[in-house]
Amino acid sequence: HPTLFYQSLVYIPLGVVFMYIRNRTSLYISDIGRVMFLCTVVISCLLAHVLEQTSRARFKTKQRVEETQDRVETVLSNLMPKKVLEEIKLRAQSRWWPLWRISLEGSIV
After folding, report:
1. Helices 31-79 and 11-21, interaxial angle, to 10°?
2. pTM value?
3. Hey, is 102 helix, strand or coil?
4. C-alpha distances in angstroms, 4 versus 14, 15, 105?
């Protein structure tokens, strides 16, 4: 489970503190090692931000698709005769693929 962006921002001050404390310990890290460590911390925070934004966009898109499917079903149920709808439902239950596909823009393909 990846950390959220705001949670990962805690790593930056922790990394700086860790690099400051390292002078008082027997742990040896060169100056370039310190820079690389802090760059790695910043990159992990940026990755957390990108992953969170992607997850949010995926959720919004999924919600839009579900809303569009509900609207299409409502339109079909209002416009088509009941017998035809029953026939479509029976055929749809026997198949593993949908009778129609809906693009992300909301139009029926």
Report:
1. 170
2. 0.61
3. strand
4. 16, 17, 29
